[in-house]
Amino acid sequence: MSTPLLAVENLKQYFRINSHFTVKAVDGVSFEIYPGETYGLVGESGSGKSTIGRTVIRLYEPTHGKITFDGQDIGGKMERNVEKHLRLGMQMIFQDPMACLNPRKKVSDIIAQGLDIHQLYKSTRERNDKIAEILEQVGLAPDHASRYPHQFSGGQRQRVGIARALIMRPKLIIADECISALDVSIQAQVVNLMKDIQQNTGCAYLFIAHDLSMVKYISDRIGVLHMGHLVETGSKEEIFRNPVHPYTQSLLSAIPHPNPAVEKTRKAISYDYKEYGVDYTKGAEHLVEGTHKVLATDQEFVRWTAKA
Amino acid sequence: MQIQPNETILTVRGLDISFQTNAGDVHAIRGVDMVLHKGETVAIVGESGSGKSVSMKAVMGILDKNSVINGGEILFTYQENGVNKTVDILKMDRKAIRHTINGRHIAMVFQDPMTSLDPTMPIGKQIIEGMILHEHVSRREAWQKAVALLNMVGIPQPEKRMKHYPHQLSGGMRQRVVIAIALACDPDVLICDEPTTALDVTIQAKFLELIKSIQAETGISVIYITHDLGVVAKVADYVNVMYAGSIVERGTIDEIFYDPRHPYTWGLLSAMPDLDTNDERLYAIPGSPPNMIREKPGDAFAPRNIFALYIDDRLTPPMFKISETHFAATWLLHEKAPKVDMPAELKSRIDRMLKEAGK
Fold it and tell me: pLDDT, tens digit, for every residue of B235-261?
């Protein structure tokens, strides 16, 4: 296997609320993303999946752990050139396409902001050409560049958000719930677009979502997150064919199938980690098969794999 | 006389609503017809802006002030003092609706449980508020019923929870409280407007199962407004597919999922990735939903429809009847139309679903 593009080792992200209470949003998470692949991160709200995305792109200062991006350590305090390398090589697409675009700026200025900051063009002409090229790539017309965000529909706005990330030619794009605010028919358009872009540019995605069916569709490998712990990780076939952790099982069973005859009678498996008596901090990573790993203590591992 | 199961309690006919805005009149609802029987679950599916929420707000009589009702009627049958009464909600004034219909006979669950609960009031007080107002019961009785309701919606230690404020509960718990409030006055109809969009999938599944069990217990009719076909598959008996302010296809759940006729329904069903899809690309409906300010003649879906006929740009298609319960508004069903089959991918998916269901 090639060297990973992004390697996260034992990442911890704590938020101190007051002297008595600290939120452990992410508590010891390790994973790798290889060039050109899509890594899907799923979990319920509050499981820390967005926090991981934001820590990786260094919107937060990690409490503990090592993050290596493209051969450079970005976990601690960064040198100026390392930071520049990170900002050029990693971009983010946000959840709400209305909230993440500055309403007072033209689309061209929103998209080209990264270029402006890093002075990546020699003439205005080159800048405009780059904008036009990227707009075409995401399926918008060149004359859209002079409009404002409010003149677009939700799906088009998300395309602007994608264009803004793409213009830097990043190696890794962090897509934080980037389709959950869109309509079903538009979701499919945006996901197809993201797949096309990956084929053309070879960028990798960290795809953060709570919709498992979409995650299965777009991802090569999946990590299941719960309470700040990565409870199960593996290729999508491994996870969907043979979910080992009870949380993953309950998550999979909760996805509604668009098939009424089956769905009417199906009951979701419920999972309460207190009832199950699972203590994530005691668990260690156990290898199930191939790249399929699960967080469990030795006894739990024996019990869960025996059932399956 | 009791209203029997399967008797009609709500009929919407030719509903037509527009909104006056600075940019001009927005013709949001263009002739919606709908029937709800007692004890049934009806789902309204559509993209945002298709008018599904607006039509239900009309049923509740809580439309925004800039709305203009151009026509239609909403007939609601309920029981008062043992007598069946039928009223046209559109002809009643707001105050009368507030006193006789809202909460008492038709209750609504909104999308976001954080914004629909009052953060300054304990949840117990919010539940008994409606009961005291509508049913003139004593505080003690109302309190006891509220505890029973919290118990029914699956909140542990209901007595203790009664004094809690909304911020002390999790998202799923809050949505349960909202249901308890909606059910406080034993309504006949429960309207759920995107009830699970703000919830996680695991909680969503529990929520839908809860509503189903309540329905089995009380015989209440439920209207779901949603864009998630998975949710529809789980709960609905009848489905109305809405596009650009009108219903384009309606039928029983099996008819819509296994024998869809309208190209928009085909698109919706294909665009949803199911867990067995192995296709490289998802089917996507091209284009985006129409801007309702600019009205164009003909079928509103035509610009996004690869099967659109010449007539689609000129004349709005009527509802064609496919079976006693199944109707679709597309010219493709006209006897003179060329024969168009649903996309092959969708066909194979439906075959797979039927096989899975053992049919």
Answer: 999 999 999 889 999 999 999 999 999
**Residues B59-67: what's their mean pLDDT?**
89
CB contact set of B237 (below 8 Å; sequence gap of 6+): B40, B41, B42, B252, B253
pLDDT digits (tens, 9 = 90+) for B25-35: 888 898 899 99
pLDDT of residue B106: 93
Q: pLDDT, tens digit, for every residue of B129-139?
A: 989 988 889 99
Sign (positive or negative) of CA dihedral A136, A137, A139, A145: negative
- Residue A221 has a pLDDT of 93
DSSP-derived pairing of the beta strands A221-226 and A38-42: parallel
CA distance linking residue B145 with residue A117, whole number of Å: 62
Residues 6+ apart with CB under 8 A from A121: A115, A127, A130
Q: Using the beta-carbon criterion (under 8 Å), do B257 and A211 form an inter-chain contact?
A: no
Per CB-CB distance under 8 Å, the chain B contacts of A260 are 232-234, 236, 253-254, 257
Q: What ipTM score was computed for the predicted complex, to two decimals?
A: 0.77
Q: Which regions in chain A score pLDDT beneath 50?
A: none
The pLDDT confidence band at residue B280, using thresholds 50, 70 and 90, is low
3-state class (DSSP) for residue B322? coil
Which value, in Å, is the radius of gyration of the alpha carbons in chain B? 21
A259 in reach of chain B (CB within 8 A): yes
Give contacts of B 32-51 with A, CB under 8 A: 47-48
Question: B residues 246-285 near A, CB within 8 Å?
Answer: 253-254, 257, 267-269, 271-275, 277, 280-285
| Residues in chain B within 8 Å Cβ distance of A95 | none
What type of residue is A104?
A: R
Q: Assess contact for A200 and B288: CB atoms under 8 A.
A: no
Q: Give the nearest partner residue to B359 out of A44, A189, A261, using CB atoms.
A: A261
Q: Which domains does chain A have, with CATH numbers?
A: 6-235 (3.40.50.300)
B322 close to B333: Cβ distance less than 8 angstroms: yes
What are the strands, taking DSSP E only, across B217-272? 221-226, 238-243, 246-252
Give the DSSP per-residue string, A97-141: TTTTS-TTS-HHHHHTHHHHHHT--SSHHHHHHHHHHHHHHTT--
Residue B325 has pLDDT above 70, yes or no: yes
Is residue B263 over pLDDT 80? yes
Distances (CA, A) of A86 to A55, A107, A228, B44, B129: 12, 24, 24, 46, 56
pLDDT of residue A212: 82
pLDDT band, residue B5 (cuts 50/70/90): low
Nearest to B274 among A185, A251, A257 (CB): A257
Secondary structure tally for chain A: helices H, strands E: 13, 12
The DSSP letter of residue A35 is T
Alpha-carbon gap: A117 to the closest alpha carbon of chain B (Å): 33
Residue A295: which of A248, A255, A254 has the closest Cα? A248
Ordered structural domains, chain B, with CATH:
242-357 (3.40.50.300)
Q: How far is residue B349's CA from residue A186's CA, in Å, rounded to a whole number?
A: 20
The percentage of chain B sitting over the pLDDT mark of 70, rounded to a whole number, equals 96
| Residue B169 contacts residue B162 (beta carbons within 8 Å) | no
Stated as kind and residue range, the H or E segment containing B303 is: none
Query: Quick check: B273 pLDDT over 80?
Result: no
Do strands A292-296 and A90-93 pair parallel, antiparallel, or not at all (unpaired)? unpaired
